[in-house]
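From: lab user (bench 3)
To: helpdesk
Subject: output format question, protein + fe (ii) ion

Hello, I'm new to running complex predictions and I'm not sure whether the block I got back is the full result or only part of it. Here's what I submitted:
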Amino acid sequence: MSNDKTEGVTLHLLSPLPYADNALNPVISANTIGIHYSKHHKGYVDNLNKLVAGTEFAGLKLEKIITETAGKSDKIAIFNNAAQTWNHTFYWNSLKPNGGGEPPAALKQKIEASFGTVDACKKELATAAMTQFGSGWAWLVLDGDRLKVVKTSNADVPLTTGMKPLLTIDVWEHAYYLDYQNRRADYLNAVLEKLINWSFAMDNLK
Ligand SMILES: [Fe+2]
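Helpdesk reply: Thanks, we reran it on our side. This is the complete output you should expect:
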């Protein structure tokens, strides 16, 4: 039975993909998106629901679970699955078919104030994503009134350190390995040139 409630507690739901699984072809194949979404992302949501059932975290909002469990070694499984649930929804929205190009004017201005040029910002994102050793994420964030690029390991998310995420790129191997094997740089360049959703980043800036 598919239901969003059990014993009166609201379950976390797998957010719908904002586009068809083949919409990012050929940069990211339908095969990669399909497995990434229906196995990896769904797996985190399912695990989270199992892990929080009957605990103090049942019924709490996802962001609250993330901030409440961050840095607590006895809550690491809940944190990992909650953060990965949030990170993946944020990642799907950070990409769009026919993305890339010029950011909206207000975001572009902010990028230029913080990085000099849009190209410099993209280069910093690519470098952060390339130099993330092992699994993790590269992020464009708002830190105070400036934009910054940061990278995080595994499930970590800048929400827990007071920064506001604007967009992210998944650099876990499951995000690109079927299409690019070990060529992470090729995946990153293609994503930044053709898929990155500057409008989503702009919306998060508001
Ligand atoms: Fe992922």
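A quick orientation on your result: Residues 36, 40, 88, 170, 172, 174-175 surround fe (ii) ion (CB under 6 Å). Let us know if anything else is unclear.
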